[in-house]
Design a protein that fits this description.
six-stranded mixed sheet, 21% strand, 21 helices, 628 residues, alpha+beta, seven-stranded antiparallel sheet
């Protein structure tokens, strides 16, 4: 409860230590300390941020495996484990910032059962009624383990465990709270089993966090005990590599595989230094190291990531190399790549071809995804709830409905500027469609949202929101329409490619969307309507941007076209700042032009409107307290 106590413990136990404030969330105020100076800084901060002015000091077990168990218990003492999860990152990175796989892949049966037994003993001794998340540190070199944390509530991992298994943890916990026993609560997925029946997974789930570093380009990207991610994506596959690659392209940060262009230019020493520090891009650095022939032993020493996961990533890299050098893309090579989770776009990039050509070659060979069902029981009982994920080389279990169908595209991971509000809209769209007599199908990949609850829509597809993955669902379902206007920028960006492929878009037309989103066309529209806007222009290169800024005068507001939430938007006061911005934040090009507008101070107001094509209703006008 004070610095002197902390110093006394450090003198007795030695460094390194981990400091964890009481009653804070997401690791707030805590951290690892390796010397007296760090101890003073972190303990002082932790005491200030703890509501009860208390911190916990513990021996550091950084580098051990981190394993989580999601456990349920009722008032009668019945206990089950919903699932266990394994963090790819070792202890030392907050689980919310970790890449997580469910179920665990590297535990022996003995280790699995020991931690499961410990979890049940803990939840029973605490007398918890409902859900509980328990985190363990497991020594990879012996059979020792420690309990790191117990959350007597739903945690960040509970949503993941619910969506990974199809077991609705919060719903079951609510029923337990009002006195129901696990063996009295029906499993809504099967309709036959009860909540006391432990879920069984015949697939692999991978969660990858979504970090805000695209907004904060100069932020410290090192990961530690204080969580930095704003959201996460989840992907399901029959193998770890397939689920991992689906998760990567679900993140919507421009990557379709494990290749990072900036790392290819690094020297080996730079890559090794980067791998020593936990960060948001370690996965790409491991892949780059494997391309350069780094051994699994060396990578394990640098990252403490289990050799099993490193070997599975090496399978992806080996396939990459075979795809790049193959004279022709035959059925065998294509099938092998698709089963490992490769996107058509990534295969095309590796071979210097167009995505459309790879797609055509794949379809010519009859290689299309089959859809498997998430049923909580590894097909032991028939499932009533249609909840699907795609897989290649597998039986297709998805049967499209018989009624009139509409596909609603969700909003993907939560990030700054695109959050839960879009999911709220997607869910209400689904409910409205069902009320109007349509079958509603939703496609999304965010485990934290209501749209990915198994009972929100008539059918749920847990898939990346890319053209390839969404188009495969549309070809499977053959809907009358697709709705894009409730999924935020993610869905809007898919409107053009889907319409070009002949998919009918419901609501605002693709032409109308483009007219509003394409700044050049929008500026012409305003001019035609006689409505003023700040003076500015559109630049395809840095020289054009400097010329526009010089003409209209500084300060200027600069931003890329087709963005949401002000990503990469800045106020620039001098020419050298504009050059730096174009180089670092925007990567300006004719395909990705830069908008340069005069920065106008003033009162900022918003008008919300809804139109049916003839009449317009304005539900509200809002004024911002802060200036524009």
């Amino acid at each position: 409860t004070n610095l002197a106590e902390a110093e006394a413990f450090a003198a007795e136990c030695g460094f390194p230590l981990v400091v964890r404030p009481a009653y804070t969330l997401g690791g707030t105020g805590g951290g690892f300390v390796t010397d007296h100076e760090e101890l003073v800084a972190v303990v002082t901060r932790g005491l200030r941020q703890s509501p009860i002015r208390q911190v916990l000091l513990e021996q550091s077990v950084a580098g051990w495996k981190e394993i989580e168990y999601e456990v349920m218990r009722d008032a009668a003492g019945n206990c089950i484990t919903v699932c266990n999860m394994e963090n790819l990152d070792p202890v030392g990175v907050h689980t919310g910032d970790s890449i997580v796989v469910a179920p665990s892949q590297t535990l022996s049966d003995r280790e699995y059962q020991r931690l499961r037994t410990a979890s049940i003993r803990i939840i029973s001794a605490l007398g918890i009624q409902g859900g509980c998340n328990i985190q363990f540190a497991l020594d990879p070199k012996s059979d020792r383990y420690f309990v790191i944390e117990v959350n007597p509530r739903v945690s960040r991992s509970s949503a993941l465990a619910s969506k990974a298994t199809g077991y609705p943890i919060a719903k079951v916990a609510a029923k337990i709270a009002i006195g129901r026993r696990l063996d009295e609560i029906k499993n809504a997925v099967t309709g036959q089993t009860f909540a006391s029946f432990e879920p069984a997974l015949d697939y692999v789930v991978v969660k990858i966090p979504r970090w805000p570093f695209d907004k904060f380009t100069l932020a410290d990207r090192t990961l530690g005990t204080q969580m930095k991610a704003t959201g996460e994506v989840m992907a399901i596959g029959r193998t770890f590599p397939a689920a991992l690659q689906k998760a990567i392209r679900s993140l919507e940060n421009g990557f379709y595989g494990l290749r990072h262009p900036k790392m290819a230019a690094w020297r080996d020493e730079e890559l090794v230094d980067f791998l020593r520090r936990p960060g948001d891009e370690w996965l790409f650095a491991v892949a780059e190291g494997l391309r350069r022939g780094f051994s699994l032993e060396m990578l394990y020493e640098l990252t403490a990531v289990d050799p099993y996961f490193l070997a599975e990533i090496r399978r992806i890299i080996s396939c990459e190399e075979r795809l790049a050098v193959a004279p022709v893309l035959d059925r065998e090579r294509l099938a092998a790549a698709k089963e490992l989770g490769f996107a058509d776009r990534e295969i095309a990039a590796l071979r210097g071809e167009k995505e459309a050509a790879v797609r055509a070659a794949r379809q010519k060979e009859g290689l299309v995804p089959g859809y498997r069902m998430v049923d909580t029981c590894a097909a032991e009982f028939e499932a009533k709830t249609p909840y699907f994920y795609s897989s290649y080389g597998e039986e297709d279990e998805a049967k499209p409905g018989r009624g009139r169908r509409v596909v609603v595209i969700g909003s993907g991971p939560i990030r700054i500027g695109q959050g839960i509000e879009f999911d709220y809209c997607s869910v209400h769209a689904v409910w409205a469609l069902r009320e109007a007599g349509y079958e509603a199908v939703i496609v999304n990949n965010n485990p934290e949202t209501v749209s990915t609850d198994f009972d929100t829509a008539d059918r749920l597809y847990f898939e990346p929101l890319t053209f390839e993955d969404v188009m495969a669902v549309i070809e499977k379902e053959r809907p009358e329409w697709v709705v894009v206007q409730f999924g935020g920028q993610t869905a809007i960006n898919l409107a053009g490619p889907l319409a070009a492929a002949g998919v009918p878009i419901l609501g605002t037309s693709v032409e109308g969307i483009d007219l509003a989103e394409d700044r050049e066309r929008f500026d012409r529209l305003l001019a035609d309507l006689g409505i003023p806007r700040p003076p500015g222009g559109i630049a395809g290169n840095v020289e054009e941007a400097l010329a526009i800024a010089s003409r209209i005068g500084y300060p200027v507001l600069v931003r890329p076209s087709y963005v949401l939430g002000g990503r990469a938007m800045e106020i620039v006061y001098r020419p050298e700042e504009l050059v730096h911005y174009a180089d670092v934040a925007a990567r300006v090009s004719p395909e990705h032009p830069l908008l340069v507008d005069k920065y106008v101070q003033g009162r900022e107001c918003e008008v919300d409107a809804i139109a049916d094509g003839e009449d317009v209703l304005v539900p509200g006008i809002m004024e911002h307290v802060e200036r524009a």
